[in-house]
Write a structure and sequence with these properties.
This protein is an alpha/beta fold and 220 residues long. The protein has a domain of 111 residues: inorganic pyrophosphatase (n-terminal core) (Alpha-Beta Complex), CATH 3.90.1640.10. The chain contains nine helices and eight strands. The strands form two sheets. The chain has a four-stranded parallel sheet, with helices on one face. Strands 5-6-7-8 form a four-stranded mixed sheet. A hairpin with a 4-residue loop joins strand 5 and strand 6. Helix 4 packs antiparallel against helix 5, helix 5 packs across helix 7 and helix 6 crosses helix 7. The protein is elongated. The termini are far apart. The N terminus is likely disordered.
Length: 220
């Protein structure tokens, strides 16, 4: 069940808010938990079912409880539509701190895996969350540990910095030494991450530029 925008007023009027979560919505629930703390609310995070330890990295995971508190005067389910929640919080004028940004970034990955690459709005949102301090390396390490950490670090940087050209048919990435050094990625990692940009809607060409030279180009 989504929180409709009018219910943000109810949230502000409540004294004790209980957020019901499951594994699909645990990250969005943590984002809301962080937001409610900025409003100086008493908050409870409730799950009727066990949440796997892989989500332990999320802020407030240790606050999970199995039952709804009797004192809660507002109870709702955390939304599983991350983009909706991101835009709703933006509309409310919420300033994203590190915990909110990290939770929302994780929620996008939990919800979509890698299919978010096909949605420009989600990519833009994730880029904004990185700028707000989302701990992307920690999120990726716990949720997608099948890839090398260097590749995943680079992937997060590329997806937050590429630009679309030629009526959104070309995805261009400008690579620099700092990005490579921070990620520890190889040229193979660069090519793999760039290749995945071809899954974006309308994109038929990917170009990677390093020191004003095209070092990788692929046309679908």
């Amino acid at each position: 069940m989504k929180i409709v925008l009018i219910e943000f007023t109810k949230i502000k009027d409540a004294k004790h808010v209980a957020i019901i979560v499951n594994e699909q919505s645990i990250a969005s629930g943590c984002a809301l938990y962080s937001y409610l703390l900025t409003l100086h609310k008493k908050v409870s995070l409730v799950s009727k079912h066990e949440i796997r330890y892989k989500f332990f990295f999320l802020p407030w995971f240790t606050k999970l409880r199995a039952t709804k508190p009797a004192t809660a005067d507002l109870v709702f389910d955390a939304p599983s539509d991350t983009l909706w929640l991101y835009e709703a919080l933006k509309q409310e004028g919420v300033k994203f701190n590190e915990k909110i940004a990290t939770s929302l970034y994780a929620s996008f990955l939990i919800e979509d895996g890698s299919s978010f690459l096909q949605d420009i709005k989600k990519l833009e949102a994730m880029g904004s969350l990185i700028e707000s301090g989302a701990k992307t390396q920690e999120v990726i390490k716990h949720l997608h540990n099948s890839e090398s950490l260097a590749y995943l670090r680079l992937q997060a940087q590329l997806y937050s910095s590429f630009v679309l050209l030629d009526n959104a048919t070309t995805a261009k990435v400008v690579l620099n030494n700092e990005m490579l050094q921070k990620s520890g990625a190889s040229l193979q990692d660069v090519q793999k991450a760039a290749h995945n940009l071809l899954t974006l809607v309308h994109v038929t060409k990917v170009q990677v530029v390093f020191e004003d030279k095209i070092i990788y180009e692929e046309v679908e």
